């Protein structure tokens, strides 16, 4: 296509002829409307994808030309709605060879145009469509003609992409779909669904530049990647412009999680309406989607993506419902025995413990090791306690012998949580130590020097052993260390070189049960992590909240 100024003035010539007629026979508002519509009309780029924004109820027109001398000439137009259904049409304006020749040779005299009341041409609609599917029109032009594309959205403001090409010999912008573009479901589990699809011919021809990407969500299928990204944005999330792009610009989005493993890129976008999972799997045409929820209906879409052009084509989407969650295994609690339970926060599975009372009064003890845990206790089917636990928590319950207690545990965080559990009828023999009102460690800024730090912590009325440990730490490690600390792990998990001291103390008056310690021999301007362990009479440790302190740079 020759990109001369003649082709820019060609739609102007056509429009001016129409406007002159309207000026004689129609009201002024109609004439203004024609001018307004012209300024919303543009020449459509040939050989590249164009993004077009549509305002509600305002048509937008684009033009392209098939030149004299090239006919018969094939052309294709592909339109991808990115949101709501739209209406679009292709109209052909057949002009005489004399007129097209003048336009091609740059006859731009506006005065001459205004004197031409007519132009030897006819306008006819050759294609129209209404919907939100990706639609392609393939045509053949047997004479020189001006074509007009008209787009209209009647629901709301939206955007679309349009691809026009008059060169069918240079390959395809969009990857090709197989003759059967359906996705087959070949396996369904409680938390997995296995999919398979036929290879795209583009993968077989250009393997290094093509890959498959999956979209998994709980709402509905999407007919294009453009539509999927628009839907995700409308739910308040930032979306990568294409699934195959680099990880780095998006790693810090709070509502987005990216996972790269075994050459597979997974992007999980979270919002109030659920999550949309995007997975790029290279050129494999089978994939098992992991980490799904049981008894949940999911919609699956597969797109074949051209990495060089970012263009994509959609397979026919499908859906499946995962299997029902099997009944959780019941673990029997034994009197006086401590067990540690790890809870999967991602799958939000419940862990169930059962205990049959041998005494009328019993006590459940929960020591939170990591994360946060919701505890729900029933006695003979009736709820007797339910709350989120932190630190060390006791539940003293009264009932009858042979009552059946069911304890259900669940992580309230996305990350894994862990908790120690004990049930006992022997109140006079506690396994866990008596705890102070607070497990925080305090540091004194005014007592800091270049090589020493002073810390303090609360004790109890019961004589107990306290051990202090220290470790050098980098600033970028602080958050992870504080979040991942296992408060059930005792000093045995620490290296000998980290030990500072152990000492016993108590005070009958809890208001005075405070001890301080000055740790010396530290490095100048260095960050340290300090831990205090309280050792109970049975040897079960309780770890205070870690404290990070930095020595002074100058003294």
Automatic annotation (TrEMBL):
Q: Where is the Neuron-derived neurotrophic factor N-terminal domain?
A: 40-169
SUPFAM superfamilies, per database record: Fibronectin type III
Domain Neuron-derived neurotrophic factor first Fn(III) positions? 193-322
Asked whether the UniProt record includes Glycoprotein among its keywords, one would answer yes
State the Gene3D superfamilies in the record: Immunoglobulins
Where is this protein found?
Answer: Secreted
- Choose any GO biological process term that the UniProt entry carries and state it: nervous system development
Question: So which domain of life are we looking at?
Answer: Eukaryota
Signal peptide extent? 1-23
A GO CC annotation given for this chain: extracellular region
Give the record's keywords alphabetically. Answer: Glycoprotein, Neurogenesis, Repeat, Secreted, Signal
Identify the InterPro entries for this entry.
FN3_sf (IPR036116), Ig-like_fold (IPR013783), NDNF (IPR019326), NDNF_C (IPR045805), NDNF_Fn(III)_1 (IPR055271), NDNF_N (IPR056225)
Tell me one Pfam family matched here: NDNF_C
Q: What is its main location?
A: secreted
Protein NDNF C-terminal domain mapped to chain residues: 382-555
What Gene Ontology molecular-function terms does this entry list? heparin binding
The molecule here is called Protein NDNF
Q: Which organism is the protein's source?
A: Nothocercus julius
Gene name, per UniProt, is Ndnf_0
